[in-house]
Amino acid sequence: MNPKVDGFLKKAKRWREEFEKLRMVCLGCELTEELKWGKPCYTYQKSAIVLIHGFKDYCAFLFFKGALLKDAEGILVQQTENVQAARQIRFTNVREIVEMEPVLKAYIKEAIEAEKGGLEVNYKKTSEFVVPEEFQNRLDESPALKTAFDALTPGRQRGYILYFSAAKQSKTREARIEKCVQQILDGKGLND
After folding, report:
1. Cβ neighbours around 19 below 10 Å, total
2. Measured CA distances, 177 to 130, 150, 191 (Å)
3. In what order do the strands lie in the sheet with 39-44?
């Protein structure tokens, strides 16, 4: 047991009992307990397997490479359409966790086996994401902007594309693009 996780649990105002039960499930599966990204994280030979986290309406197990799991029970949730690898199992009370404990352990075992086997998620390439028309027009109009955007890392390019695409209205997409032009020209990512 990691004392940092003890501290996390003591501070938890919501989902504490659920977090503690999920912790016991993980600790019974040959995983190392750490605190990463401010959350209890369970690793196998330094590779992250599962994270425990809470939201307003539920708490969850997040399998980092959940897309590789067979999901025999049909319980894995893809948080958003843009999440490629991670999958969640969501809970709203301790009873659900207790009832699912054997299944959770089986999923953890499968995730460990995937890690041992060196399995990797096939991520979409940045070029496979649809560039919003408003941004493509802006790139076509400004060679300097296109050069700067092309020089960004693939992750930074995806960040911008997803941010621009998330806006439902063209006017909003254009406003977001305008707000980010200088940042792109400066070689920075969306959150830099």
Report:
1. 23
2. 15, 15, 14
3. 32-36, 39-44, 47-54, 59-63, 87-91
pLDDT tens-digit profile of 105-121?
Answer: 999 999 999 999 998 88
- pLDDT (mean) for 149-163: 92
At 80, the pLDDT band (50, 70, 90 cuts) reads: confident
Burial 46-80 (b: 16+ CB within 10 A, else e): eebbbbbbbeeebbbbbbbbbbbbebeeebbeeee
CA 166 to chain centre: 17
* 138 φ/ψ angles, rounded to the nearest 5 degrees: -65, -40
**Count of residues in the chain:** 192
Q: What share of the chain is helix, strand, coil (3-state, %, to 5)?
A: 50, 15, 35
Per the confidence metrics, is the pTM higher than 0.85? no
* 163-180 per-position pLDDT tens digit: 999 899 999 999 999 999
Three-class secondary structure of residue 64 per DSSP: coil
